[in-house]
Amino acid sequence: MPAPWTLHLAALGVLFVTAHTIEVYTVKELEAPNGTDTRLKCTFSSASPLGREITVSWTYRHLKEEKTETVFFYHKEPFPPPPGRFEGRAFWDGNLNRGDASIILRNVQEKDNGTYLCQVKNPPDVHGEMGEIMLKVVNKSSFSEIHILLLVIGVGSALIILLVLGIVLFRYYRTQKNHRSTPVSSLECAEKVNEKNQEKLLEATEINA
């Protein structure tokens, strides 16, 4: 019959093994513009060293349905998505050595709204909560709207520049006009009269001589 302390150690060992869980981290909600490539980030930590049997599973659950759909699977190498909604659109973008199990979902559409589940297993760490990301695809501004906005900004800036230029030119021409129409001062007139008188006096002197 085993000694009591042997049974006690065995029970602790079982408890220690079952307590091994893998932690998975994701954001709860994520907004993505319609038609863009979106990175679904999923990171993890494991108490056990990473082994060759580590697996990453991404599944999708629609907003109004309980059934799930496979998005992506990784085991020793990335496997392409099966035929369906995510075929040719889900790509591996993680690094297991850095605890990263992220994927990229290309050209997201409103039909992709729903919950994305990230599950990582690293035997013997196979227990733990899955990461859940609620993806919401939102409409982005169309090219025409952006074009109109840029056009309005450009026209407004051009009008302001023309207005400032007009004010500067108006002030310049007004200054030049005032300068040309400025009356001759009384001192200048007196000098001119004295010059003429001296010229006449000189002419008279020459005649008398």
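(the above was protein one; protein two follows)
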Amino acid sequence: MVFSSILFLYQFLPGVLLLYYLLPRRSRNGFLLLASLFFYSWGEPRYILIMVISTVLDYSCGRGIHFAREKGKEGAAKGWLLLSLFGNLGMLGFFKYSGFLAQNLSALTGWENTLPAVALPIGISFYTFQTLSYTIDVYRKETQMQPSNISFGAYVTLFPQLIAGPIVRYTTVAWEMDHRRENWEDFSVGIARFFLGLGKKVLLANNIGLLWKAVSAQNPEILPGVTAWLGILAFGFQIYFDFSGYSDMAIGMGQMLGFHFLENFNYPYMALSITEFWRRWHISLGTWFREYVYIPLGGNRGSRFRQMRNILLVWALTGIWHGASWNFLLWGLYFGLILMGEKLFLLRWLETWPKFGRRVYTLTLVAFSWVIFAFEEVAQGAAYVQAMLGKGGFADGTSLYLLQSYGLLLVLLAVGSTDLPAKLFQRMPQNSRTREALASGLLLLVLGLSTAYLVDQSYNPFLYFRF
């Protein structure tokens, strides 16, 4: 079940919200746990046990760390932490990377790989990092142990962000798990945020995704440069509006239920450097790696060599987190090397450039990164880069047709990926009734158009399900 489906929009979500608010407060976490398990089992009934095991493991490890500390047994507390780390990363490694490792070992040694293919449980990368943040923070004394297994289970399985994030650290919702107070203001803001995300996903990402689908189906060896650039621009907009739209929906649903998740995107295509881009893109993932990998490795402390090593290692892990494929590792290393260069000298150089030049620099590098990300076959990605550089000529009839068909949408997406629409809305007359009426009308229009699109179409992918 996906958020952008008629089943979810008109049956599951309204039913959950109705029952949630009819129940007394003391029963709401238990209901959220059951509703979230039902939501997950709808798409992954085989692997719900994996999520339950992860939940039980980290709940037990959190308690173990807490009570070991109370008895002054620091070694035992560290043992519980290691159990959580090895248990969670072991499951993630088995389901996500065992096939990749076996395949490459077979290619290197000639060993006949007879291991059965292992399907990837939906959302395992997200909820594994989420549960790990709890045990690590309990060990660091940055949060208290959650005494209720029901409340902890609700935290791990909470359906708004279960399958696609944002990655919610326990510390950000610890108080709200047992003490939140829902109100109409939060609920109405949550609805608006949800509808906004739905429109970004269904009306924008899905439609521009058709352009990428058409271009990526062509042979990159003979692709004209204009067509190649149109395709990768389409992919860049698709993945942004797709994932940020889902994040908006998750944040909005969380607010309807009384939770306040942190932002996951902050207009990344407005960044003036790659360093800034990654402060704005998938913020929850970047925060996780900074807090639990980069800083423990030493961060910016120590020699310049150690700092560069830490950056490269974190970005190699960031890349491979996205998928068990060489292109994702290369994608992570690509950004790692650029960020190393910016830290060493590029940022100082870029500061002398006008903003327009800095944006061109950033968006060009990001565009080439999407080629690495999009093609699992590295050779195919390399051929596509050559097409972008003009190997297949400048343009042909198809290029002009695609530009004519999608040019206006690309312009709208470019504007929509900036903060300009929000600024224009803020400059409207301050009469609250006028603004509320306009906002309500626009959101209802988005809902109506999105519903019509979902009823009438079959192209409704979600790019981050595979992670």
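Reviewer note on protein two: The mean pLDDT is 92.
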